[in-house]
Amino acid sequence: MPRLHVPVTPTRPGDKPDFSYVALSPAGAIKKPAFDAGALELEFLATGLVRVLDDGHRAKGPWNPKLDPATLRTGLRHMLLTRVYDDRLQRTQRQGRISFYMRSYGEEAVAVAQCMALEPGDMLFPSYRQQGFYMVRGRPLVELMCQLLSNTRDMCKGRQLPVMYHWKEGNIFSISGNLTTQFPQAVGWAMAAAIKEETHIAASWIGEGSSAEADFHHALLFASVYQAPVILNVVNNQWAISTFQGYAGGEQRSFAARGPGYGMAAVRVDGNDFLAVHAVTQWAAQRARAGAGPTLIELVTYRAAPHSTSDDPTRYRPKNDYEHWPLGDPVERLKQHLIMLGEWSEERHAALTKALEAEVAEAWKEAVKFGTMTEGPRLDAHTMFEDVYAEMPSHLERQAEALRAELALNAELGLTAAKE
Amino acid sequence: MARMNMIQALNSALDVMMARHRNVVVIGEDIGYFGGVFRVTDGLQKKYGDQRVLDSPIAEGGIVGAAIGMAVNGLKPVAEIQFADYIYPAIDQIASELARIRYRSAGDFSAPVTIRAPCGGGIRGGQTHSQSPEAIFTHMTGLKVVMPSNPYDAKGLLIAAIESNDPVLFFEPKRIYNGPFDGNPNKPAVSWTEHPKGEVPEGYYTVPIGSADIVKTGTQVTIVTYGTMVFVCEAAARSLGIDAEIIDVRSMSPLDTATITESVRRTGRCVIAHEATRFSGFGAELSATIQEECFWHLEAPIQRVAGWDTPYPHAFEWEYFPGPARVALALRAVMNVSGASEREGAAE
Predict the structure, then answer these.
(1) Mutate to test the interface with A, among B310, B327, B331 (most CBs of A within 10 A)
(2) What is the ipTM of this complex?
(3) Inter-chain contact A395–B309, Cβ cutoff 8 Å?
(4) Which domains does chain A have, with CATH numbers?
(5) Is B226 found in the same domain as B193?
(6) Which of A227, A316, B133, B161 is the S-S candidate for B114 at Cβ 3.0 to 4.6 Å?
(7) What is the pLDDT of residues B150-159, one digit of tens each?
(8) Is the pLDDT of residue B345 over 90?
């Protein structure tokens, strides 16, 4: 008799961490096919795990991107800056100075290595855990912080939750709070690039939990049908808030394995291995740029942080899970690799961390000058009526006028904006 | 009787119905082991097992589609959409399927699904965690749409929704999950413990769908409202010293037209208030109905108070929210007009 299967969550609070469910391949074990190989020849890439760094921190095998030490140090710096920035803003949220925050702790290699493997003109459609793009593409931290503060220099004019950045000049699309919506949009952007005969490609990121949404399937279908120059990335960080990846379908097959069903190249990669992530992304980018078709990449990683500052993961998973994660920590692994190469040291790492902390602290001091949620200058509330349409319709003009009368009465009744 | 906040009352409704009927199941994102991001389903999986309290993939269209199939096969699913803002991927399943299965099969099939969704702003949720989309669903024939404003109604309406033979969209104003809110964000939070509607029977009872509640009787003006705005309107009328009759609509579809129109005929003045955007909002339906039924009794044009016609901005939450000042301006406007003098003025 059939019984409803309920996906197994391997460990819960109080259990000993157990990651035996994660299928691993040794570093260097997976073949590297030609970038323009037919999708049917590539199916093994969707179930193996491309890894370059071995347990002794040596780079191994055909996927080694052979990056020079200066590039590796740059990558390490971007990842470390992302982490330092995240830690600082997490504390800032705890102090009540910003309303909300989301860290990318444990998955910094995804955004940083992938962005470094792409060209500056390539268009990125992120979800909310790829702040590393901004480190790589060099947006001043002050500008990011002003978004978090919803202040007078906020790129979103106070309209979006913290971390929902965008950067037109930097080719990074606006983040949506709704899940997976950016996936088919990235495919459309790439279709337009092909229609316009341009060589820039598009790339998009979702979490494995978001691959459950229909938009994931729309994206793969359109990418495959039109052979769009796009890279679709599933960041499998094991958890969608409290829900284990098995509930998104990861229990039966890898997320990368969704690709071959659509006749699409797909690669499963160690998401905490900077070198492997870089190499796989470069391969997929070359494939897309050459007109050889789209690629689905599953980046196997771990969400070491809570989902957001509104989440408490000790309620649903073992406290010390991350210490036992078999793919280690991305910052630590690249650091050890550089040390092994004789290109880095613990002392230099400590000094860099300190310098980055100072840089972030300095940026924060600057950002708060443009206002915080509670003090300093504030955007005019009437800006909320702008950008609903290209030109303001008359009914919004009337509402903006009505708001003036209301604010006056508010002041009279002692009901000024929230002090939180 | 017990003291409950709205979350506990909703939890109690689910508990009561799961205990009474083996065919009641609950499905949604993070609702099982974790107990829901707002804790409404806390403890249910432990009590009723993982075959009846289902954690789901993040796929609202899938949740509603599957809930329809379960209902067609005899279950009574209660689906949670984590935030009302996330309901749109399920729109086709709701509008084209859920709402019409009974009609298109001439009554041979039906899908009595309850869809719960926390709605509304006031929690610094920005444009994707603050919306009030109830009007969209009132425009879909075949659906019932309700929104309670207090723990007592929340429990009674949810039990009625689960018992309903028709699908019900059940919106929960999350700003008042833990206590009534008068629209002044600077005041300390108030809990439900002091409020009479925080007193909730522990067992089974219903609040019938399709009945409005006269929250406060009054003589000078009728305020027709629902959800978070009930308390904001009370505060606004109090601040102006106006003896307003306040009606909590509770059920947008079907609508208790009799209670509303009887009141407006009596007071001769009407303000309609909701948090959702104004243009084509549910206030438009209320206003049209009241105008049709009460025209000869009105002393002043009906006033609508609503969220501005923009997305809900993170930084300007309280400038956006239709707080007591916006309600007060509308009240002043209806009170300062006499129907007779307006007509005379127009004739000059």
Answers:
(1) B310
(2) 0.91
(3) yes
(4) 39-368 (3.40.50.970), 381-413 (no CATH)
(5) no
(6) B161
(7) 999 999 999 9
(8) no
The percentage of residues in chain A with a pLDDT greater than 70, rounded to a whole number, is 98
The DSSP result for A126-194, as a single string, is --TT-THHHHHHT--HHHHHHHHTT-TT-TTTT-S-TT---BTTTTBPPPPSSSSTHHHHHHHHHHHHH
Contact by Cβ (8 Å): A213, B59: yes
Q: Which two tokens stand for residue B244?
A: 């307003």
β pairing state of B114-119 and B76-80: parallel
| Average pLDDT for A220-243 | 98
Q: B41-48 long-range CB contacts below 8 Å, 24 or more apart?
A: B41/B11, B41/B14, B41/B80, B42/B11, B43/B11, B43/B15, B44/B11, B44/B14, B44/B15, B44/B18, B47/B15, B47/B18, B48/B18
The answer to whether residue B348 sits within a structural domain is no
For A313, the enclosing helix (H) or strand (E) is none
pLDDT (tens digit per residue) in B242-298? 999 999 999 999 999 999 999 999 999 999 999 999 999 999 999 999 999 999 999
Chain A residues touching B183 at Cβ < 8 A? 415
Instruction: Tell whether B183 is within 8 A of chain A (Cβ).
Output: yes
Secondary structure letter of residue A28 according to DSSP: T
Q: How many domains does chain B have?
A: 2
B-chain residues near A248 (CB < 8 A): 57-58
> Among A59, A61, A39, A49, which residue's Cα sits nearest to residue A19?
A49
Q: Whose structure tokens read 């860290």?
A: A103
For the residues A68-74, what does the mean pLDDT come to? 98
Domain range enclosing B230: 213-338
**pLDDT tens for each residue of B224-249:** 999 999 999 999 999 999 999 999 99
End position of a domain, from candidates B171, B200, B229: B200
Contact A316 B34 (CB under 8 A): yes
Q: What per-residue confidence (pLDDT) applies to B338?
A: 65
Question: Is B231 found in the same domain as B139?
Answer: no
| CB neighbourhood size of A374 (10 A) | 12
Examine the residue annotation and report whether B297 is marked as an active-site residue of this protein: no
Q: Is the pLDDT of residue B344 over 80?
A: no
B104 & B242 share domain: no
My answer on whether B19 and B166 are in the same domain is yes
